[in-house]
Amino acid sequence: MAPKALDYESMNENVKKVQYAVRGELYLRASELQKEGKKIIFTNVGNPHALGQRPLTFPRQVVALCQAPFLLDDPNVGIVFPADAIARAKHYLSLTSGGLGAYSDSRGIPGVRKEVAEFIERRDGYPSDPELIFLTDGASKGVMQTLNCVIRGEGDGVLVPVPQYPLYSATISLLGGSLVPYYLEETANWGLDIIDLQQSVAQARSKGITVRAMVIINPGNPTGQCLSEANLREILRFCYQENLVLLGDEVYQQNIYQDERPFVSSKKVLMDMGLPFSKEVQLVSFHTVSKGYWGECGQRGGYFEMTNIPPKTVDEIYKIASIALSPNVPAQIFMGLMVNPLKPGDISYEQFVRESKGILESLRRRARMMTDGFNSCRNVVCNFTEGAMYSFPQIRLPPKAIEAAKRAGKVPDVFYCLRLLEATGISTVPGSGFGQKEGVFHLRTTILPAEEDMPAIMESFKKFNDEFMEQYEDYRGYSRM
Amino acid sequence: MAPKALDYESMNENVKKVQYAVRGELYLRASELQKEGKKIIFTNVGNPHALGQRPLTFPRQVVALCQAPFLLDDPNVGIVFPADAIARAKHYLSLTSGGLGAYSDSRGIPGVRKEVAEFIERRDGYPSDPELIFLTDGASKGVMQTLNCVIRGEGDGVLVPVPQYPLYSATISLLGGSLVPYYLEETANWGLDIIDLQQSVAQARSKGITVRAMVIINPGNPTGQCLSEANLREILRFCYQENLVLLGDEVYQQNIYQDERPFVSSKKVLMDMGLPFSKEVQLVSFHTVSKGYWGECGQRGGYFEMTNIPPKTVDEIYKIASIALSPNVPAQIFMGLMVNPLKPGDISYEQFVRESKGILESLRRRARMMTDGFNSCRNVVCNFTEGAMYSFPQIRLPPKAIEAAKRAGKVPDVFYCLRLLEATGISTVPGSGFGQKEGVFHLRTTILPAEEDMPAIMESFKKFNDEFMEQYEDYRGYSRM
């Protein structure tokens, strides 16, 4: 009998081509080990609550009340919920038509989109139009929708940083497009070089690829760098010259661990540049409730804002969003709460500030502990995590380790990460899942393990690594730069 | 300058080809009128809470507590929440790793998938494997993922009933596949004729299309029929013979308004048929928390169960699901609560039964009121709504009305529905959005307006319709059958 449509041989090839390392071999092996009773430290996904971060109290109170609107009529509600949470729940319910159980408009609740626009205006100092803001089930869904509009076939290319977050490579494969890599420069703290960008585009063109869009991740994932205003300006000028849509993945905009270079949005830089850029460059920027000090990953809330996208295209994106009816409504309320937070004087304000500052300051300390820890290990070098939630150390694998990996049928960094997992329970993602230069190896870990566990984790990492290096190094030593 | 990637001319053509009438011209016009202050009765989407249906208390209590886990340590929690809701919240939180704020496994929380499997086993009397059940953000997302694996290009066809729910036509367009229509027979209460199916396949083949899958919607949307066991058996045998994957959209399985023909799942019928069918036919079945007496559309919770899908394919689907990390977690809890409801003796059991029975019985009365109402109108005939949430009356438009529509540049049923909207505020979806035979016209309305409003709505409809018919009919009368 002929293969059936859902037999592996017969499936859509684009599906099979997709690679998704964040939940790939390492994650699957870690899940197995966990089932067998081994203690696993999951640092493969930026999933703070899974590693013990507690949710912010106030937004959870508001959403709990929105889920249980009958409590708003209960005379005892004030015993367990503060008055400002009750008021906010009433506010958000009044913005819905039918509460959390009704589909919203496919673009999201108009009142919440208005609050997002006000947030962007305050952040950037430029007007923002709620009609050009769509709420989504997490930022990923917005990225996928946007790329779906951009990519028409394998002749269409999208510039993606290497290393990159595999959402981009996976989505481009799934949509049958072509990924055009540009390399971030590790020795320049993962900076972005415009000359390198131009070369990537030229190379893609020589292969017959039309480069149509460019992705930046700022702050960087997995690389942790913050792009400077000057660098963003160069990028936007480049997009203008090359006629590229810019996808600005700005989901880590609240996660900044140094004071020298605050987050600046692509939208603000574009508006600052003035004409012709501010009216010409097509920009789609993404944000989420999953990161920042919220870390509400499981809620799946995000938005994207479109700049210089023509109304007819906005209508098409609206139509596509409508196929799945609406993003989940509870996460839309979280988004409202994120962009329109408590103000000084509100009853819950001090608690909210204490909780959110506590998380951010601890992340900053953890970024430092982790980077320093990696840099104290044999054959490991690591740029400081300026932002986002990850460390991306380079692991200088000795030739004998690379040979051993080959004998085991593994990519060298996968081999290293599997050995690390078996020895210590630390579940990381090999650098090959994000892309890296030929012959150079990394791993990605989140900086999210609980602060009190961090010294023991880094010690356990160092013990494994240094023994691994000892095992595979020539006695003459190994000194590749 | 060349068009930019997100200029309309330059976008992915598959995006532009998508049609999505449920939120199309009628919906947009209704939204405009609402902004202008007109009272609109939105019957375009099966969105019960938007039309005043109140959520079931118990599941909302449980999810509210899961959102506010700190309440579980509050000595006063028992003042506003019953003990069984507290116990259930603890149960579901124990199944997560990190509560509602953490991404779950991309397939959904293992413990909830186990509860779904137990539900299916009780329903069908056959084993169900949690590893073959994936939770999704509403059933739509699961349908889109499945079709994404099936469709490789325009040479791949999917059999879709006409009239159909436009999720299918829209997704097939977006994925660049070919829709192969098969017609449901209105005069046989929207039954499905196997000979017609065979003709559809033969016709598609003659055009060079490989038919790879078939969609059934049972109970039907927009048509409201329930498929008999004998009919399902024929369909499954047909899928076996023609080597087709069956997509069983069973989201309305709790919405049954007659006693003669209970819902039977495709999975049960397939297992009943025994070898070779039960081991050969590839089946994916879909369910949701959006319908039934829950109507929790805004939460976006669903699942799909795979039968006879090889493990390598399941791995591929898992990988694709991983790109967007995880379905939203709160809706996974709703799914657990739906498939594992309260039992006699639980504190909240009686209230739960009272609320859910109240909703279902009212829907049954409304289905009757609506069908009878339509059948009392001039030139309108309507099959009884046996299940689901819709009425799909045929509107026999007089030739002069069809001419008037042409002059206005509108499809005739769109013309009628727009006039209905302007005159009465009732926002329906024209039959052309679902597909219908040439020269035959329908509209779809949900049966969801509040029961107490129903007589006035049907009266207002009748007044509009009968005047419309009066206006456009020859004085000699119009009697097309």
From TrEMBL, chains A, B:
Residues 85-450 form the Aminotransferase class I/classII large domain. Its cofactor is pyridoxal 5'-phosphate. InterPro entries: ALAT1/2-like (IPR045088), Aminotransferase_I/II_large (IPR004839), PyrdxlP-dep_Trfase (IPR015424), PyrdxlP-dep_Trfase_major (IPR015421), PyrdxlP-dep_Trfase_small (IPR015422). The keyword ATP-binding does not apply. This is Aminotransferase class I/classII large domain-containing protein. Homodimer. It catalyses: glyoxylate + L-alanine = glycine + pyruvate; glycine + 2-oxoglutarate = glyoxylate + L-glutamate. It is found in: Peroxisome. Keywords: Aminotransferase, Peroxisome, Pyridoxal phosphate, Transferase. One of its GO terms (biological process) is photorespiration. It comes from the Eukaryota. Belongs to the class-I pyridoxal-phosphate-dependent aminotransferase family. Alanine aminotransferase subfamily.
